[in-house]
Write a structure and sequence with these properties.
alpha/beta
Length: 468
């Protein structure tokens, strides 16, 4: 029997800890396991992008670019993968094309091999620049992702048509990105089968275990011809994370879908993350709630990370008892806004507006700046056209944006360089500042103070040996 190896993308260094502990795993926590991870033979290791960049700067006082260089140094044999939000990059607004192009260049130069790029609205125009930029980088693999959701227009034909567009734009592979864990097993089979019949590039499937069906969905996707899937080592799997790597590897052993990975070797690597999990639980970084299966995701289509944000917002307002009402309001707001898939940044925009609608006691009495931008077209074209009357209700007499949003942006790099020149130490700092502004400046200040502190310590020690 001919064995066809299924590729495994391991997410333990990015999406797994982003899903379970708000992206708080430090580089120091990763270091002891890197050589062992590199030796496994994964198709790729997802280790950068997503919320890691923000968390490094905002919470961990780490330079995300330095983290990437360290990861590449210790894992030279495995393709390193990142998640990239197209024209949003890793921030929360659209950036000019010159910034997007430069970020892609620097990501590859610092160690990224696979760039998984997606758009929250599945607006293909928002992926043009990043796909083109990635294809221009020698050795880079661009994987274009389809943001998976459900709703009036989201049938197999919709996804196949979108995937074909991405292939024609130059994608080296296509990923079905099921961020909320909504992909059901037989739907996965039907979708992957249709994609394999339509596009010629490899198909990968990414799903979260939030609703408890992701491992079944991956298995049916593999049977339908998927070339690769995303999993997480078992200590940081399940819950709002992904199916467990070891379990899937064991399930496929000796079948036509064998991964070729060594289960004993994987178990050895997992020991390090088992110790980390125990520590994270003790420190309260992993909340027991995110480890549970929550079938409400299938009803409300709320990703795990979005659910935790809603709980946090209600807690800050002292209105935690309103969670059920907010969960009921989320799909209504989503419908009003043209059925955007609920993934960063649209998940935060829709979720926050739902909270405002419920707490305010009147729908759209208070409208966030971001929700107004979503309705106006600042983020691109929504999958379903928004009712013109609702558009007027939200943005008044303002003109909707109908072009590619980035076409309205002038080149930004010259201005950004000038604004942050006081803090410049490496070329990548310009890109850090471009995305995170005040947060980046605070990090740059802390970095400078730490360096000055070291210098002062050296000076003090020298003065003790050679008094002036």
């Amino acid at each position: 029997m001919k064995m066809a190896k299924i590729g495994i993308t391991e997410t333990v260094l990015r999406d797994a800890h982003q899903s379970l502990l708000a992206t708080r795993m430090t580089t120091e926590d990763m270091l002891p396991a890197l050589e062992a991870l590199d030796a496994v033979g994964f198709r790729s290791l997802e280790c950068w992008g997503g919320a890691t960049f923000d968390a490094c700067l905002r919470f961990l006082n780490e330079d995300p670019w330095q983290r990437l260089r360290i990861l590449k140094q210790h894992m030279p044999h495995t393709p390193l993968q990142m998640l990239f939000r197209g024209q949003n990059m890793l921030g929360y607004r659209h950036y000019a094309d010159d910034v997007v192009q430069y970020f892609v260049q620097k990501s590859v130069a610092n160690g990224i091999d696979v760039i998984r790029v997606f758009d929250a609205l599945n607006d293909v125009r928002n992926l043009e620049t990043s796909i083109k930029a990635a294809r221009a980088e020698k050795g880079a693999h661009v994987q274009a992702a389809v943001s998976y959701t459900t709703g009036p227009v989201f049938d197999t034909e919709y996804y196949v048509r979108y995937a074909k567009q991405l292939e024609e734009m130059g994608a080296d592979s296509i990923c079905i990105k099921d961020m909320a864990g909504l992909l059901l097993p037989y739907t996965a089979y039907e979708l992957v089968k249709a994609l394999k019949e339509t596009v010629r590039v490899p198909i990968q499937v990414h799903s979260h275990f939030t609703a408890g069906v992701a491992d079944l969905a991956l298995l049916k996707a593999i049977e339908a011809g998927a070339d690769a899937v995303d999993t997480a080592l078992s200590p940081l799997a399940l819950g709002t994370s992904h199916p467990a790597t070891e379990s899937l590897v064991a399930a496929l052993q000796g079948t036509p879908y064998d991964t070729g990975l060594d289960l004993v070797q994987l178990t050895g690597v997992s020991r390090h993350f088992t110790a980390l999990r125990q520590r994270y639980l003790k420190e309260g970084l992993i909340a027991p709630k995110v480890l549970e299966v929550d079938v409400r995701a299938l009803i409300y289509q709320v990703p795990g990370g979005m659910l935790s944000n809603l709980v946090s917002q209600l807690k800050q307002a002292g209105r935690e008892e309103l969670l059920e009402e907010v969960l009921l309001e989320v799909p209504r707001v989503r419908a009003d806004a043209g059925y955007p898939p609920l993934v960063t940044p649209s998940s935060q925009i829709v979720g926050t507006q739902a909270v405002f609608n419920v707490i305010g006691g009147e729908r759209y009495k208070m409208v966030t700046k971001e929700f107004r931008g979503l309705v106006r077209g600042d983020y691109g074209k929504t999958p379903v056209p928004i009712d013109p009357a609702f558009v007027r209700q939200i943005i008044g007499d303002e003109a909707p944006v109908t072009c590619r949003p980035a076409d309205r942006l002038a080149p930004e790099l010259p201005r950004l360089r000038e604004e942050m020149k006081e803090w410049y130490q490496q070329e990548e700092d310009v890109l850090t500042y471009a995305q995170f502004g005040a947060v980046a400046l605070k990090f740059f200040e802390q970095r400078r103070d730490a360096q000055l502190g070291i210098d002062r310590a050296h000076l003090h020690a020298a003065q003790q040996v050679h008094p002036v």
